[in-house]
Specification:
single chain, mainly alpha, about 90% helix
Length: about 190
């Protein structure tokens, strides 16, 4: 048999509804023991689970802030890297242009050196030709002078011989004596020149 709650009496009127509510709760928990166990476990394990959760949440939020900082730093570094890459590309392009300009200048310098060497060789040939022509002209002039000098000397000797002959004729000196004074010799020497 079941235990019944005491009937309502005037002396126990305030206690009756409380006991009935308690009995209903006890009956509910007895009928559903899993809910009871779950509730008891939840009451004990919720703080045990909440404390590590709260600690890890605080740690996760600190790590999240740190991750945001690192993300901002990474973005800044990427922007700086792009700028550096652009500057590096510009410098590389300038280096290639400078290298090409230097190569062109080097080729022009080599060409100028070749032209200078060719001009030097032409100048040397020209100088050699000029020197040979000058030597030839000097030699011809020397020969011409010698010939002119010889002709002039020959004419002078002929004039002297003619003068001496006239003087001898005018004074009446014989031809054998004339040869003694060297008039014939002067005439022969004048003919040679």
């Amino acid at each position: 048999m079941e235990a019944r709650p005491p009937e309502n009496t005037d002396t126990n009127t305030s206690a009756a509804p409380t006991n009935a509510v308690l009995d209903a709760r006890v009956n509910f928990f007895q009928r559903h023991p899993a809910i009871t166990h779950f509730t008891v476990l939840a009451v004990f394990f919720t703080p045990l689970a909440a404390v590590p959760y709260l600690l890890s949440k605080r740690r996760i939020s600190a790590l999240s802030r740190r991750l945001n900082e690192l993300s901002a730093a990474t973005t800044a570094l990427q922007a700086e890297l792009k700028t550096s890459a652009t500057e590096n590309a510009t410098r590389k392009l300038e280096s290639h242009r400078t290298s090409a300009s230097l190569e062109v200048a080097r080729m022009e310098l080599i060409q100028l050196r070749r032209s200078l060497e060719q001009l030097r060789m032409e100048r040397d040939v020209s100088e050699m030709t000029t020197q040979n022509a000058l030597k030839q002209l000097l030699e011809e002039r020397k020969l011409t002078r010698q010939a002119e000098t010889g002709i002039a000397l020959g004419l002078s000797l002929a004039d002297v011989a003619a003068f001496m002959y006239e003087v001898e004729l005018h004074h009446g000196i014989a031809s054998s004596v004339i040869d003694g004074h060297g008039v014939e010799r002067l005439r022969r020497l004048a003919l040679k020149f």
